[in-house]
């Protein structure tokens, strides 16, 4: 990235257009979230990982201070540089990834409503995704299905329009939904016209408390992120009002008509949400990697073997140097993509995918290195590093696996339909 310095004016420091120094607001928010991560999340992380349950008391603590709220998320998003949202995510996931996902899992549904909803839908549904500290709610984004993971165009859940009742009727099974079945608001990706593949998809709001025919299927028992609830969701003749399609029915009809005429439309419904959220997901992976790196660095400076600290061995010191290097490189890619997304720069070279790919792979690698530096202790549940390693692995799988990110990048840079 080029720096463009303006001419110095008198004794004042030159104004620079490019700057990596965080401003006072960004630093304040970072330190505030770090405090919550250190004081509330870290002490509770092991317990909730073992319990494998949604940590409602922790979400409530976050809600009480405004960290888990519509207003909080809006404030983080409002930063015109785009950096506050990844900074918040990095700190939260530095605290703990399972608890972090329990707090941030709602934001994928929020991103979908915000990105595709009408003003009225945004005003009505986003506050309901969070509830209030006394009546907490979470939200779920349900795109994946048993046979539609990487290949989201294979979604089989249908949304049929019942003209007589003026309602949508949804049928199908969603898989691996974060907060699936416990969320108040489910954003469900369904096919309105299966002949159009992903271009025939639309996003629907299904409120658990009002809609009949939606229920949780099996809860998934996981390798990591165990404090975050993941489950299948079944939709069985689930009826919702006309106005629950994001963007409105009129706009959907217009879009489908354009697709049928062979005209270009905006990218696919689920992909729009994933593109926007990838840098944020990358920031979460950076947080986990940083936690493991810091822990391993401290450990290596304390632990003695052969009469010296293990960090005095190049093998250990160089591993830590590489970890720091890769984590910082990941963060820079995340910040670049976040800045591009917020300032309206198009991801010409799939910069969002680059950030998520790099950060996910670095988190998986760095947490494994950290475990190794701790030796036998690293492999036990007495130390947090093995949990961080289990948590990190999902970052090469969800929101597009590493192979899918490489495919997206390869297509973007080449213009060739790489398979
Ligand atoms: C903890 C967790 C939380 C999740 N939360 C959500 C959620 O909230 N909402 C939601 O909708 N989904 C969610 N998911 C689903 C997640 O997004 C999918 O698991 C992911 O997209 C991968 O799909 P899949 O599991 O079907 O793997 P598959 O698509 O079956 O892939 C299996 C393997 O094949 C590779 N592969 C597939 N196609 C290609 C190709 N063309 N080229 C090269 N390699 C390929 C993949 O990279 C992977 O290694 C979650 C999953 C988990 C585990």
Automatic annotation (TrEMBL):
<keyword id="KW-0560">Oxidoreductase</keyword>
<dbReference type="Pfam" id="PF00441">
    <property type="entry name" value="Acyl-CoA_dh_1"/>
</dbReference>
<dbReference type="InterPro" id="IPR036250">
    <property type="entry name" value="AcylCo_DH-like_C"/>
</dbReference>
<feature type="domain" description="Acyl-CoA oxidase/dehydrogenase middle">
    <location>
        <begin position="140"/>
        <end position="238"/>
    </location>
</feature>
<dbReference type="GO" id="GO:0050660">
    <property type="term" value="F:flavin adenine dinucleotide binding"/>
</dbReference>
<dbReference type="Pfam" id="PF02770">
    <property type="entry name" value="Acyl-CoA_dh_M"/>
</dbReference>
<feature type="domain" description="Acyl-CoA dehydrogenase/oxidase N-terminal">
    <location>
        <begin position="24"/>
        <end position="129"/>
    </location>
</feature>
<dbReference type="InterPro" id="IPR009100">
    <property type="entry name" value="AcylCoA_DH/oxidase_NM_dom_sf"/>
</dbReference>
<dbReference type="InterPro" id="IPR013786">
    <property type="entry name" value="AcylCoA_DH/ox_N"/>
</dbReference>
<dbReference type="InterPro" id="IPR046373">
    <property type="entry name" value="Acyl-CoA_Oxase/DH_mid-dom_sf"/>
</dbReference>
<dbReference type="Pfam" id="PF02771">
    <property type="entry name" value="Acyl-CoA_dh_N"/>
</dbReference>
<dbReference type="InterPro" id="IPR037069">
    <property type="entry name" value="AcylCoA_DH/ox_N_sf"/>
</dbReference>
<keyword id="KW-0285">Flavoprotein</keyword>
<keyword id="KW-0274">FAD</keyword>
<dbReference type="GO" id="GO:0016937">
    <property type="term" value="F:short-chain fatty acyl-CoA dehydrogenase activity"/>
</dbReference>
<comment type="similarity">
    <text>Belongs to the acyl-CoA dehydrogenase family.</text>
</comment>
<feature type="domain" description="Acyl-CoA dehydrogenase/oxidase C-terminal">
    <location>
        <begin position="269"/>
        <end position="413"/>
    </location>
</feature>
<dbReference type="InterPro" id="IPR009075">
    <property type="entry name" value="AcylCo_DH/oxidase_C"/>
</dbReference>
<protein>
    <submittedName>
        <fullName>Acyl-CoA dehydrogenase, short-chain specific</fullName>
        <ecNumber>1.3.8.1</ecNumber>
    </submittedName>
</protein>
<dbReference type="InterPro" id="IPR006091">
    <property type="entry name" value="Acyl-CoA_Oxase/DH_mid-dom"/>
</dbReference>
């Amino acid at each position: 990235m080029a720096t463009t310095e303006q001419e110095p004016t008198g004794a004042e420091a030159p104004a620079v257009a490019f700057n990596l120094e965080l401003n006072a607001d960004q630093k304040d928010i970072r330190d505030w979230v770090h405090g919550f991560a250190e004081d509330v999340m870290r002490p509770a992380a092991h317990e909730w990982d073992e319990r494998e349950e949604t940590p409602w008391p922790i979400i409530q603590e976050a809600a009480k201070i405004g960290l888990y709220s519509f207003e909080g998320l809006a404030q983080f998003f409002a930063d015109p540089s785009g950096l506050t949202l990844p900074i918040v995510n990095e700190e939260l996931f530095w605290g703990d990834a399972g608890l972090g996902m329990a707090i941030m899992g709602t934001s994928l549904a929020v991103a979908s409503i915000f990105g595709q909803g009408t003003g009225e839908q945004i005003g009505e549904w986003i506050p309901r995704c969070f509830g209030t500290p006394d009546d907490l709610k979470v939200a779920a984004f349900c795109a994946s299905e048993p046979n539609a993971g990487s290949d989201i165009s294979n979604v089989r859940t249908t949304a049929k329009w019942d003209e007589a009742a003026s309602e949508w009727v949804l049928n199908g099974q969603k898989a691996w939904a974060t907060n699936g079945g416990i969320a108040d608001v489910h954003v469900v990706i369904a096919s309105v016209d299966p002949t159009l593949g992903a271009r025939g998809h639309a996003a629907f709001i299904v409120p658990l408390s009002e809609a009949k025919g939606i229920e949780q299927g099996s809860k998934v028992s996981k390798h990591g992120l165990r404090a975050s609830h993941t489950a299948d969701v079944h939709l069985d003749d689930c009826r919702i009002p006309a106005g629950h399609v994001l963007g409105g029915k009129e706009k959907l009809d217009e879009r489908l008509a354009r697709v049928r005429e062979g005209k270009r439309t905006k990218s696919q419904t689920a992909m729009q949400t994933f593109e926007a959220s990838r840098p944020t997901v990358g920031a979460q992976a950076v947080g986990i990697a940083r936690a493991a790196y810091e822990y391993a660095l401290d450990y290596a400076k304390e632990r003695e073997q052969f009469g010296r600290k293990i960090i005095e061995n190049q093998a250990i010191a160089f591993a830590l140097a590489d970890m720091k290097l890769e984590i910082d490189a990941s963060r820079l890619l995340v910040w670049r993509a976040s800045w591009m997304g917020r300032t309206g720069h198009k991801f010409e070279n799939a910069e969002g995918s680059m950030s998520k790919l790099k950060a996910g792979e670095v988190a998986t690698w760095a947490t494994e290195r950290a475990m190794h530096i701790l030796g036998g202790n690293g492999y036990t549940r007495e130390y947090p590093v093995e949990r961080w390693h289990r948590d990190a692995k999902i970052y090469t799988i969800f929101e597009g696996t590493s192979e899918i990110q490489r495919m997206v990048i390869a297509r973007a840079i080449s213009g060739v339909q790489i398979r």
